[in-house]
Amino acid sequence: MIDTYKCKECGKTIKIIDEEVPECCGKVMTKVPLDICTQPAHAEHARPMDDENACDDGRAG
User: Fold this and answer.
1) Rounded Cα distance, 11 and 23, in Å
2) Which of 1, 32, 36, 54 has the greatest number of CB atoms lying within 10 Å of its CB?
3) The CATH number of the domain where 22 resides is what?
């Protein structure tokens, strides 16, 4: 999984794959949280009004 980290001091961002938390400006960088649309669905982000039926594949006639 690719994680994005940002330096609180200089604002530099980097993307790394499953490695240790990087350092910048002599301090540990902070992980940038995922956007809400890319997080797994759970109760707080559920959209009960969305239609979750299978996609129309055009075979219905």
Assistant:
1) 12
2) 32
3) 2.20.28
